[in-house]
Amino acid sequence: MSSTGRLYGLGIGPGDPELLTLKAYRILKQVPVIAYPTLENGKALARSIVADYIRTDQIEIPMPLPFSVERSSQPYYDQAAIKIAQHLTAGQDVAVLCEGDPMLYGTFMYLFNRLADQFQTEVVPGISSTFASAAMLGAPITYRNDVLSIMPATLDAETLRDRLSQVDSAIIIKLGRHFAKVKSILAELNLLDRARYIERATQANQQILDIKTVDPQAVPYWALILIPSQTQPQ
Amino acid sequence: MSSTGRLYGLGIGPGDPELLTLKAYRILKQVPVIAYPTLENGKALARSIVADYIRTDQIEIPMPLPFSVERSSQPYYDQAAIKIAQHLTAGQDVAVLCEGDPMLYGTFMYLFNRLADQFQTEVVPGISSTFASAAMLGAPITYRNDVLSIMPATLDAETLRDRLSQVDSAIIIKLGRHFAKVKSILAELNLLDRARYIERATQANQQILDIKTVDPQAVPYWALILIPSQTQPQ
């Protein structure tokens, strides 16, 4: 084991390059190999977040991943794991760049499940866009005995309605083309007045909009709705 | 406004000093005044996390806060806000140190509610112990359409049972003397085999224990139980 490389799942935060932790920054600077997911159009959000920190002599492994639910993602993850394993076996440390936190709805978890039993693995937590959004909105999320529910907008309407019908506070992520569905459920449950909308939290093009004025056709994947606690004790 | 100081809610993470963000580190280094909660015994976890980064010429405002639910905390927060406001009015920036993330069950939110409408305020998100625990446990939390519920163990048994009876994944925080109650509910709901226990995640004295061997009398406030997703797709 000692001559093989170490695998890092590196949480790099929601977008602002200053929201890397000191630890993620140190590891990013010292590893010889970095890997990161890329969209089909070649864009790589994770890489763009840390672009200023990457050295020219670092080996880069772009990992094309399917963001369409219609296709099985298994072969994509298998292939990425094989490439990463080659470097680890050759004794090189590899850092997988993870937007937000590696363990929450992340690409890294699929690599973790394939590689962590064969190679020394360290997960470095990152700032999640869920909580970063609360900071940007100036909206405390939960007080005292509140329960927080984090859920993806991709859930079917019935499940969303059921889960949202009893929340103290909630964060609904991955809005994209599911915005209209979510908005109508929030209206139904009298939650629309409490709902706060933010796109691309902490990124250079962050937008905070009144949820009632949002164009459903223009909502990106990286948008979320925060329903803060009503408790607000003194 | 321009001559008054700026208030920072500074997320400093769960314990490892390297889990500060680059941004929190920069602000901590540059502000003339820092404030942090202290327990009745004088201990200050937040200060101890960043002890190595504090300059000797920085003014420190310890904020004694009641951690007993029996007492009203309002006068404590009022008093802390008055002290902080004095420095802000005098044109000095003040950083309030927040364990974990400032907007999640945090002391800072009470100061935010008292001061943010009078002074320029910036909240810097921090690594929450909730997600950091998943990294330390090597346990992916949520996949795809999973809903994550974060809840305090201080809830009454009936509410806890109700909320836990339908979770995809859950994080139960603030265990302390509520451990036995939570464990028995998890057993009842057949969740005990999935439950992972961790104390003081990322702190120097972090402990990961088999939940079945934990001594209920020895569980600290900073302990939590993580119930990871069962989904685990390929």
Automatic annotation (TrEMBL), chains A, B:
Residues 6-209 form the Tetrapyrrole methylase domain. Transmembrane segments: none annotated. The keyword Cytoplasm does not apply. It comes from the Bacteria. CDD domains: Precorrin_2_C20_MT. Keywords: Cobalamin biosynthesis, Methyltransferase, S-adenosyl-L-methionine, Transferase. Pathway: Cofactor biosynthesis; adenosylcobalamin biosynthesis. This is Cobalt-factor II C20-methyltransferase / precorrin-2 C20-methyltransferase. It comes from Synechococcus elongatus (strain ATCC 33912 / PCC 7942 / FACHB-805) (Anacystis nidulans R2).
